[in-house]
């Protein structure tokens, strides 16, 4: 289609005598330019992938990857992690009754507790996560069920949330703030950790609830409507999400910097997880002094205010205590993968060396450039 | 004069169009609807429109923007391009339509605009003006009623053609006289053939019966042609105005040829469409299986809206299916069509830009008439070439003539000066006698008279005779046939000079410097079926003579006397030497015979229907009972490097067939000279001579046996004896003719094809133009379906050029018809080598990579989304952000592959030219066959699995950052996407073998663009968006060490299999191309001091020669 059109252009555009009688001027103008690009003679590097050239690269990669892999693996192994499942699916578990007797309408909360023993002390900062399984935070209907404008403090969006929030958009004719399925299903178990010392007294482990959400989320993406002055007034005319016990401006009445939409627990929950089994940062246990470990080894007591039902969809709830290195939490996969790829490259290098020598003499076409 | 007089034959009023030329497709008003309609007729665009509409109607995972924007982009770009082209056409039309034209109205010349002309107007045209429409020539300023015209812009022939006025109106001199004409013209419906016109003019004079005159192509002045050497002419607008002119009819596009690559591309598309549909079906089914329990379908945290709940399950399932289709629709990339089209369009410029294919003499380079077939040039298996003008120069030189066996050789050429007439004849066998003398005279006169050569006068010379009398040739001959010019010039050297045609009298200056005048009565024009031409003249003594010259095969059967044997022997001898021979004969006509001939001719000429056929019959009756005079020999030299080109084509695995109308001996000699046949070639003959001795059946079977036996014997040895086949037109038609019994015919065809398959070279001689096309068709339809290429320069090659997969025209001496009808036009045969071996090869590997890569990168792109569905409850949750989905094909990965497909050179131009064998590497569509396609697709799937599960295991229940914070699903998608973009781009970098600065710029540039875009996209809260899910996601990801490590690791793992496969293949069984690369590499290393730099990421060495660096700096 294209070519035919430009050829006609040539024909009816200039019906000049295109023939051998044309003067020398006409000849000059028709002659193509002798530029490197038009003549396809641009200077170029012409690398070729032969056994000879790839060989050293393979060895080098092997040599780089294996140490990195070992380093990653060792780091990962040094990370201490302790996981407690407190779902209460099992009849022997302490939370069984809470899990069974659960109802959204009950005003009194069910409390249960789990005892566990840390064999080894956790030296540096310890991060406390809650984990959910079989919870599809990445379901499409769920992921899109939010209104980012509302969460950003937009007044009009506050009173008139996005259609995406349906069916968690309005309640009793009032707009829900924060609207949507994600906000509605905010994780609302309360976890408290106690260290049981040798005399049997329970010492509450101080849990820091700040610094668990992304800095940018907390300070830019999430904002309370009408500033942080009086949240009760700002949220007037809105309804609380159906499943919530209290409205959004009472999430953390003690700290105005952590209340309303900028409540960090809320922000953490609003970042939807990629996979149905996920964990979210709950609290941080700061290291107090350099001499004593953050969590010394011994007996611990986890107090759970059980509000969040998961058994209906076969879910599980966990608490994870973990230290962190420069490369994040415990994940042997990366280290193992690096070691595997490194050694594979090394092995392939050897294979290629053999092939190279065997076929090189036969083909006499490629030799090692070094 | 415009309306027929009352009482004339029934006049059917017909609406004639005005003289407006409309080559444009659209008007201002209908552009948008019509262009959109045209664009959505393409199946791909329609598909994307469908997806877009689905996205608009139902609730789909991705916003309509993701498919709407690319579609809008594609449609807009195409529309702008087409609109611009149409605007150019409008402009051209306007300038054509508004150019002034002179019309005779009420006895006066009135100036008007070209588009205001109507059928029946009388137009005056001055010298060097272009005819505004198709005109019948009424009268001319030249006294003989002729005018000269060039049709350069119509068919490219630069020679002047003579047109004749209608005899009855020839005498009109003034406007008033012309205006008084009262006549009607009948003619056939408009048709595009430039050289055919049949009509009749009836002139009314007072109350008399109208005089009817035949009108032929020689009376019809075509729009677009230019008047030359004639002061002015008057002509009526015959019939054809505006869009009915032959020029306009000829603009209509030819049938579209599709390349093999396009066919495989469409096949791949269908496969991908099936993959797409099956993915959607699988996911829909799994979704409903998974959702069986209501806790999964609607857990407490994730309820449906009331509306959705009430929907019927079938509708829900259908919606889900469509939503999956939308989610995966990117697997068929909208941008591929655009990229392919751009690649073809832009890529074809390299052919026109090629300096090596520019011919200084002609002042022209190669021409691309269609860019759809670029890659087909790299797939050619059979080359069908014309001989005259293609293999040979078509620059004729008179060598000798023989009259009754006596040979005359002009010596004039030897010392570079023209000798006096008498001394220039060298008689080899001189025994003058009365009989002989008479034949000699007749022979020379025959050659001086029997032609259609025109004398072109030099502008500065006022009288042509004077110049010639002084022995200085100030005029030269022009003719559409170079043979004729050679003959007339040869005659001049032998002492008989043809002076001119004046008032129907041909003037000859004979040896004794006397002027002889012959009245030219009739010209029986040459045609390729009859293969001869004749003139009937009346000598000054009142004798009627018919002179005829033509191919020996067409003359000898009509000869009744003369020294046939001697002439025949000489003709055969000359033919063996590769000379073109013509026989000359004459016949004395009695008055009565002449009258009868006249009658036949005028009857045939007057016929409105079947004129061609009737004329042929009339010619057949008149041209008989000849007396043989002698024969001429003209040499046609081989074109420069023709032999080298043919040898290269042979080495490249192509089979070269020569199809010619020439005699077998001449053609065979040319074939030997051009190395089509070598000394070692065993020639198999399948000619009329042999089939007369044996039956066709026996000959065919015998030849087949020979070929098969030879091949089975030499099957073991490398040095297989090669065969050459010679077949002539008569035998060919016998082979192809369906047999009466109905069983044999297909057999003959098969056997013939079997023989041809085993011959490296085939020569078909004595071919009619249509037979050439038949052969091409036969080969095209044989069971391997090979790709054919036809190359020729003349009008007789047009049929095969149109028939073959690729048609190449040579801008030769025989006009431009071949070049105009071809797909590509080149100045010389030798340019075919670069065209196929270099350009064809490059285009093929480029487009092959382009197609495979496009599918690969989209599998990589979409397959992770498919896998993600298993982890998000089959909810059609997209893995990547909308911006990434939209821009992946448009901007992140589009430019590198487009550039690759424009500039990649896996082997240098020199190597390709030096080693034609490399062409075999890509034969039979080797880079786009199913195994290769499967490899690319599997690689794509493997890479996609690596991306997805790599990220999956890294994300599995762990944290990435050193501050313990967690990432969400968008970070997961961004990680996969980053690995994807880098892998896919680096995969192309690995495939790139020709790294110019543009490649570096585009490849690294597009990666950089991706990073910058992502930073920007996540960098601010976008006010116009209703979601901010990408806010700081990319930056957070980059701030985590493990993310970097895993990106690097995953890129490595995905590239590794391909690198290993490449290296192993190269080491174990290198292709010829790869060997050539290595040789070139070594050569470079040895020649110049090479600089190695090891870039470990790419595991390859780059060589920078100082030479290149210097060039780069300059």
From TrEMBL, chain A:
Region described as Disordered: spans on this chain: 1-32
Keyword Transmembrane helix belongs to the record: yes
Places the protein is found: Apical cell membrane; Cytoplasmic vesicle, Secretory vesicle membrane; Golgi apparatus; Membrane
Ranges annotated as spanning the membrane: 48-74, 333-355
GO terms under cellular component: apical plasma membrane; endoplasmic reticulum; Golgi apparatus; transport vesicle membrane
InterPro entries: CDC50/LEM3_fam
Residue ranges of coiled coil: none
Assigned keywords, A-Z: Cell membrane, Cytoplasmic vesicle, Disulfide bond, Glycoprotein, Golgi apparatus, Lipid transport, Membrane, Transmembrane, Transmembrane helix, Transport
Membrane topology: Multi-pass membrane protein
Biological processes, Gene Ontology terms: phospholipid translocation
Keyword flag DNA damage: no
Sequence similarity: Belongs to the CDC50/LEM3 family.
Protein name from the UniProt record: Cell cycle control protein
UniProtKB/TrEMBL annotation, chain B:
Domain P-type ATPase A residues, every copy: 99-161
EC number(s) recorded for this UniProt protein: 7.6.2.1
Family classification: Belongs to the cation transport ATPase (P-type) (TC 3.A.3) family. Type IV subfamily.
GO cellular component: early endosome; endoplasmic reticulum membrane; plasma membrane; recycling endosome
Alphabetical list of PROSITE patterns matching this protein: ATPASE_E1_E2 (PS00154)
Binding annotation for Mg(2+): 386, 388, 793, 797
Keywords, sorted A to Z: ATP-binding, Cell membrane, Endoplasmic reticulum, Endosome, Lipid transport, Magnesium, Membrane, Metal-binding, Nucleotide-binding, Phosphoprotein, Translocase, Transmembrane, Transmembrane helix, Transport
Subunit structure: Component of a P4-ATPase flippase complex which consists of a catalytic alpha subunit ATP11A and an accessory beta subunit TMEM30A.
Positions of ATP binding: 386-388, 484, 526, 549, 580, 660-662, 766, 772, 796-797
Protein name as catalogued: Phospholipid-transporting ATPase
Start and end residues of each P-type ATPase N-terminal domain: 14-67
Subcellular location: Cell membrane; Early endosome; Endoplasmic reticulum membrane; Membrane
Principal location listed in the UniProt entry: membrane
Superkingdom of source: Eukaryota
Active site: 386 (4-aspartylphosphate intermediate)
GO terms for MF: ATP binding; ATP hydrolysis activity; magnesium ion binding; phosphatidylserine floppase activity
Cofactor(s) required for function per UniProt: Mg(2+)
Gene3D superfamilies given in the database record: Calcium-transporting ATPase, cytoplasmic domain N (3.40.1110.10), Calcium-transporting ATPase, cytoplasmic transduction domain A (2.70.150.10), HAD superfamily/HAD-like (3.40.50.1000)
GO annotation terms (biological process): phospholipid translocation; positive regulation of myotube differentiation
Spans traversing the lipid bilayer: 267-290, 321-340, 933-955, 967-989, 1001-1025, 1031-1056
Stretches assigned to the P-type ATPase C-terminal domain: 819-1071
Membrane topology: Multi-pass membrane protein
Catalytic reaction list: a 1,2-diacyl-sn-glycero-3-phospho-L-serine(out) + ATP + H2O = a 1,2-diacyl-sn-glycero-3-phospho-L-serine(in) + ADP + phosphate + H(+); a 1,2-diacyl-sn-glycero-3-phosphoethanolamine(out) + ATP + H2O = a 1,2-diacyl-sn-glycero-3-phosphoethanolamine(in) + ADP + phosphate + H(+); ATP + H2O + phospholipidSide 1 = ADP + phosphate + phospholipidSide 2
Pfam families (UniProt xref): Cation_ATPase (PF13246), E1-E2_ATPase (PF00122), PhoLip_ATPase_C (PF16212), PhoLip_ATPase_N (PF16209)
């Amino acid at each position: 289609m294209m070519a035919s059109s430009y050829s006609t252009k040539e024909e009816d555009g200039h019906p000049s005598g295109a023939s051998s009688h044309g003067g020398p001027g006409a000849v000059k103008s028709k002659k193509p330019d002798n530029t490197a690009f038009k003549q396809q003679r641009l200077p170029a590097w012409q690398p070729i992938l032969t056994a000879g050239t790839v060989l050293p690269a393979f060895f080098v990669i092997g040599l780089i990857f294996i140490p990195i892999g070992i380093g990653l693996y060792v780091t990962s192994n040094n990370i201490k992690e302790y996981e407690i499942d407190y779902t209460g699916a099992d009849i022997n578990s302490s939370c069984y009754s809470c899990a069974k007797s659960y109802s959204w309408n009950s005003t009194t909360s069910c409390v249960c507790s789990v005892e566990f023993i840390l064999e080894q002390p956790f030296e540096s900062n310890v991060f406390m996560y809650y984990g959910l399984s079989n919870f599809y935070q990445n379901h499409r209907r769920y992921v899109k069920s939010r209104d980012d404008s509302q969460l950003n403090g937009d007044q009009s969006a506050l009173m008139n949330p996005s259609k995406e929030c349906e069916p968690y958009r309005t309640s009793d004719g009032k707009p829900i703030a924060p609207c949507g399925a994600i906000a509605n299903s905010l994780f609302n178990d309360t976890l408290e950790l106690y260290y049981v010392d040798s005399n049997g007294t329970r010492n509450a482990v101080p849990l820091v609830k700040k610094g668990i959400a992304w800095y940018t989320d907390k300070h830019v993406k999430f904002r309370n409507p009408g500033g942080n002055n009086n949240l009760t007034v700002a949220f007037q005319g809105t309804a609380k999400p159906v499943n919530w016990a209290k409205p959004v401006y009472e999430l953390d009445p003690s700290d105005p910097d952590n209340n309303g939409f900028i409540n960090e627990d809320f922000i953490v929950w609003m970042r939807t997880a990629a996979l149905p089994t996920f964990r979210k940062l709950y609290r941080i246990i700061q290291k107090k002094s350099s001499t004593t470990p953050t969590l010394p080894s011994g007996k611990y007591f986890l107090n759970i205010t059980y509000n969040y039902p998961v058994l209906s969809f076969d879910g599980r709830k966990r608490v994870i205590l973990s230290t962190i290195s420069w490369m994040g939490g415990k994940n042997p996969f990366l280290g193992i993968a690096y070691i595997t790829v490194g050694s594979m490259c090394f092995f392939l290098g050897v294979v290629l060396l053999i092939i190279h020598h065997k076929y090189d003499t036969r083909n006499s076409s490629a030799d090692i450039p070094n | 004069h415009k309306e027929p007089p009352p009482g004339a034959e029934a006049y059917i009023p017909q609406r004639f169009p005005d003289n407006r030329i409309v080559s444009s497709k659209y008007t201002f008003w209908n552009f948008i609807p019509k262009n959109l309609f045209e664009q959505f007729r393409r199946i791909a665009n329609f598909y994307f429109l469908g997806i877009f509409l689905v996205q608009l109607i139902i609730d789909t995972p991705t916003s309509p923007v993701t498919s709407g924007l690319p579609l809008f982009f594609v449609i807009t770009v195409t529309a702008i391009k087409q609109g611009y082209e149409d605007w150019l056409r409008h402009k051209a039309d306007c300038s054509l339509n508004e150019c002034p034209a002179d019309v005779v109205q009420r006895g006066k010349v009135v100036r008007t605009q070209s588009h205001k002309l109507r059928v029946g107007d009388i137009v005056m045209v001055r010298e060097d003006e272009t005819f505004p429409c198709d005109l019948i020539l009424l009268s001319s300023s030249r006294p003989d009623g002729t005018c000269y015209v060039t049709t350069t812009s119509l068919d490219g022939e630069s020679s002047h053609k003579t047109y004749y006025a209608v005899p009855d109106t020839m005498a009109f001199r003034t406007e008033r006289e012309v205006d008084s004409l009262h006549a009607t013209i009948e003619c056939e419906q408009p048709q595009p053939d430039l050289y055919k016109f049949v009509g009749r003019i009836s002139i009314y004079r007072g109350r008399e019966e109208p005089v009817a005159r035949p009108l032929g192509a020689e009376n019809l002045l075509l729009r677009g042609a230019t008047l030359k050497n004639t002061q002015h002419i008057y002509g009526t607008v015959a019939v054809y105005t505006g869009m009915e002119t032959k020029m306009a009819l000829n603009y209509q596009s030819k049938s579209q040829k599709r390349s093999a690559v396009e066919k495989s591309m469409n096949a791949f598309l269908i496969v991908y469409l099936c993959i797409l549909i099956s993915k959607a079906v699988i996911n829909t089914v799994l979704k409903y299986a998974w959702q069986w329990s209501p806790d999964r379908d609607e857990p407490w945290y994730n309820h449906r809206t009331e509306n959705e709940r009430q929907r019927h399950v079938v509708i829900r399932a259908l919606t889900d299916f469509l939503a999956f289709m939308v989610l995966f629709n990117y697997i068929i990339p909208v941008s591929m069509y655009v990229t392919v089209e751009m690649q073809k369009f832009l890529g074809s410029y390299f052919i026109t830009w090629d300096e090596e294919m520019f011919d200084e003499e002609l002042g022209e380079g190669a021409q691309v008439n269609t860019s759809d077939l670029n890659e087909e040039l790299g797939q050619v298996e059979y080359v069908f070439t014309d001989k005259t003008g293609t293999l040979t120069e078509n620059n004729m030189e008179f060598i000798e003539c023989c009259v009754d066996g006596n040979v005359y050789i002009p010596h004039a050429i030897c010392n570079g000066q023209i000798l006096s007439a008498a001394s220039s004849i060298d008689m080899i066998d001189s025994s003058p006698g009365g009989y002989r003398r008479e034949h000699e005279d007749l022979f020379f006169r025959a050659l001086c008279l029997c032609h259609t050569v025109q004398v072109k006068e030099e502008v500065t010379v006022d009288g042509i005779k004077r110049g010639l009398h002084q022995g200085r040739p100030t005029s030269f001959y022009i003719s559409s046939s170079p043979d004729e010019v050679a003959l007339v010039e040869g005659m001049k050297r032998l002492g008989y000079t043809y002076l001119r045609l004046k008032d129907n009298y041909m003037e000859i200056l004979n040896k004794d410097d006397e002027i002889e005048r012959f009245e030219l009565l009739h010209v029986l024009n040459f045609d390729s079926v009859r293969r001869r031409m004749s003139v009937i003249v009346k000598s000054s003594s009142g004798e009627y003579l018919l002179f005829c010259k033509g191919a020996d095969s067409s003359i000898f059967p009509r000869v009744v006397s003369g020294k046939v044997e001697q002439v025949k022997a000489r003709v055969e001898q000359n033919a063996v030497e590769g000379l073109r021979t013509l026989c000359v004969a004459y016949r004395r006509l009695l008055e009565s015979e002449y009258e009868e001939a006249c009658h036949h001719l005028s009857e045939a000429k007057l016929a409105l229907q079947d004129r061609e056929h009737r004329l042929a019959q009339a010619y057949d009756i008149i041209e008989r009972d000849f007396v043989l005079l002698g024969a001429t020999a003209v040499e046609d030299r081989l074109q420069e490097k023709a032999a080298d080109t043919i040898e290269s084509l042979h080495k490249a695995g192509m089979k070269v067939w020569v199809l010619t109308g020439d005699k077998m001996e001449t053609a065979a000699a040319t074939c030997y000279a051009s190395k089509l046949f070598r000394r070692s070639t065993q020639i198999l003959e399948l000619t009329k001579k042999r089939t007369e001795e044996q039956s066709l059946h026996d000959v065919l079977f015998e030849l087949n046996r020979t070929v098969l036996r030879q091949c089975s014997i030499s099957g073991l040895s490398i040095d297989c004896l090669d065969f050459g086949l010679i077949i002539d037109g008569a035998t060919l038609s016998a082979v192809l003719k369906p047999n009466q019994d109905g069983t044999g015919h297909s057999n003959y065809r098969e056997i013939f094809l079997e023989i041809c398959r085993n011959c490296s070279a085939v020569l078909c001689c004595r071919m009619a133009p249509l037979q050439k096309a038949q052969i091409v068709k036969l080969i095209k339809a044989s069971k391997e379906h090979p790709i054919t290429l036809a190359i020729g320069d003349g009008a007789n090659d047009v049929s095969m050029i149109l028939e073959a997969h690729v048609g190449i025209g040579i801008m030769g001496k025989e006009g431009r018809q071949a070049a105009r009808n071809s797909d590509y036009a080149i100045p010389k045969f030798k340019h075919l080598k670069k065209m196929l071996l270099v350009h064809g090869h490059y285009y093929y590997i480029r487009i092959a990579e382009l197609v495979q890569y496009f599918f690969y990168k989209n599998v990589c792109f979409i397959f992770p989304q498919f896998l993600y569905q298993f982890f998000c409850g089959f909810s059609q949750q997209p893995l990547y952000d909308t911006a990434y989905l939209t821009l992946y094909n448009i901007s992140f990965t589009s430019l590198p592959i487009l550039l690759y497909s424009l500039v990649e050179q896996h082997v240098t131009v020199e190597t390709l030219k030096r080693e034609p064998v490399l062409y075999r590497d890509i034969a039979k569509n080797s880079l786009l066959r199913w195994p290769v396609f499967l490899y690319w697709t599997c690689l794509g799937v493997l890479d996609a699995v690596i991306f997805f599960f790599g990220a999956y295991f890294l994300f599995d229940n762990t944290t990435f950052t050193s501050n313990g914070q967690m990432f969400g699903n968008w970070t997961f998608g961004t990680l996969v996407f980053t690995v994807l973009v880098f892998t896919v781009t680096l995969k192309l970098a690995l495939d790139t073998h020709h790294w110019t600065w543009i490649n570096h710029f585009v490849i690294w540039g597009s990666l950089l663009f991706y990073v910058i875009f992502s930073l920007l996209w996540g960098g601010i809260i976008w006010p116009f968006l209703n979601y901010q899910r990408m806010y700081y996601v990319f930056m957070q990801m980059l701030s985590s060490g493990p993310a970097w490590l895993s990106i690097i690791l995953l890129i490595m793992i995905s590239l590794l299999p391909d690198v290993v496969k490449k290296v192993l293949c190269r080491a174990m069984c290198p292709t010829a191309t790869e060997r050539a690369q290595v040789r070139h590499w070594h050569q470079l290393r040895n020649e110049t001091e090479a600089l190695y730099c090891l870039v470990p990421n790419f595991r390859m060495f780059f060589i920078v020669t100082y030479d290149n660096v210097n060039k780069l700096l300059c």
